[in-house]
Write a structure and sequence with these properties.
InterPro entries: MetI-like, MetI-like_sf. This protein starts with a helix and ends with a helix. It is mostly helical. It is built from twelve helices and no strands. The radius of gyration is 22 Å and the shape is globular.
C-alpha cells in the first residue's frame, strides 16, 4: 500500500470512529430543543422550553446540589489520601509496595454493580445508606485509583534533589512538602482532583444502591425521572452535564496546564 493510500485509510478509520462517538451526542443535542412531551427524532419544532423546565424541576435542582456536595467531599478525601499514599510508596520503598499500590487501584478491576452490592451490604448495618457520609465514602473508593495514578506520575518525574536541598537548609518535613514537594506535584494533584470530581459527579450505579428517599444525587434523580416521564428535558439536562464537564476541563487546562499533567 502506498503512502498516500495508507494515510487516506487511516483518516477514513479515524473519521468513522469520531462519527461513531459524536453522533449520539449530536442527536441528544438536537432532541433537547424539541417541544414534544416524549423523546423523538427528528424534532418537528424547536424551543428552549426543555432547558427552562430543567431549571424549574425541583428534583433536578436538589439532585444537582447533592451531587456537588458528594463530589466535592469525595474529591477532597481522595486527593488527601492519594497524596499521602503516593508519597509513602515513592519516597519510602519497602517490600510489598507494589502489592499496596495494586490494592489502591483494584476498584477499577471490579464491576461497579458488584462493588455497589458489596458497599450496600457493608454500609447497611452501619446506617450509612441514604446519607451524605455513605455516598462520599463509597465514591471515595472509586476516586482514589484515578487520583493516586496521576499524583504518582507527578512524583516519579519530580526532582528529589530539591527536597534534599530544603532539608539540608533546615526545613522540616511539613515545610519541605508545602514549599517544595507540593508545587512540583501540583499538576498531578489538580488532574487527580478533576478526574475524581467528574467520576463522582457522574456515578450512577453505586449512588443508586446507596441513595434513598432523602439523598438522591442527580444521576439517580434523572433515572427516576426517565421511568415516569422521558421528555426532551432529559436530553436538555444531558447536554448541560456534558457542557459542565467540558467547561471544567477547559478552565483547568487554561489555569494549570492539565493536559501536560495527564501525560
Amino acid at each position: 500500500m502506498t503512502g498516500w493510500a495508507s494515510r487516506a485509510a487511516n483518516r477514513t478509520v479515524v473519521g468513522l470512529v469520531l462519527l461513531f462517538l459524536w453522533t449520539p451526542i449530536v442527536v441528544v443535542f438536537i432532541v433537547s430543543f424539541d417541544t414534544s412531551t416524549f423523546l423523538r427524532f427528528p424534532p418537528r419544532e424547536f424551543s428552549f422550553a426543555p432547558y427552562v423546565e430543567v431549571f424549574q424541576t425541583a428534583e433536578f435542582s436538589r439532585g444537582l446540589w447533592i451531587s456537588l456536595v458528594v463530589a466535592a467531599g469525595s474529591t477532597l478525601l481522595a486527593v488527601t489520601v492519594s497524596t499521602a499514599a503516593a508519597l509513602a510508596l515513592h519516597r519510602h520503598r519497602f517490600r510489598g509496595s507494589g502489592i499496596v499500590q495494586g490494592f489502591f487501584v483494584s476498584p477499577l478491576l471490579v464491576p461497579h454493580i458488584v462493588l455497589a452490592l458489596a458497599l450496600l451490604l457493608l454500609f447497611s448495618p452501619l446506617g450509612l445508606t441514604d446519607g451524605y457520609t455513605g455516598l462520599i465514602l463509597a465514591h471515595l473508593v472509586l476516586c482514589i485509583p484515578y487520583a493516586i495514578r496521576t499524583i504518582s506520575v507527578s512524583l516519579s518525574t519530580a526532582d528529589t534533589a530539591c527536597e534534599d536541598a530544603a532539608r539540608v537548609l533546615g526545613a522540616n518535613g511539613w515545610a519541605t512538602f508545602r514549599r517544595v514537594t507540593f508545587p512540583l506535584i501540583r499538576p498531578g494533584v489538580v488532574a487527580g482532583a478533576v478526574m475524581s470530581f467528574l467520576v463522582s459527579f457522574d456515578e450512577a450505579v453505586i449512588s443508586l444502591f446507596l441513595s434513598g428517599y432523602y439523598v438522591k444525587p442527580l444521576p439517580v434523580a434523572l433515572l427516576e425521572h426517565v421511568e415516569t416521564q422521558a421528555g426532551p428535558e432529559v436530553a436538555a439536562l444531558s447536554v448541560l452535564l456534558i457542557l459542565f464537564s467540558i467547561a471544567i476541563m477547559l478552565l483547568l487546562e487554561r489555569m494549570t496546564g492539565l493536559r501536560r499533567s495527564l501525560r
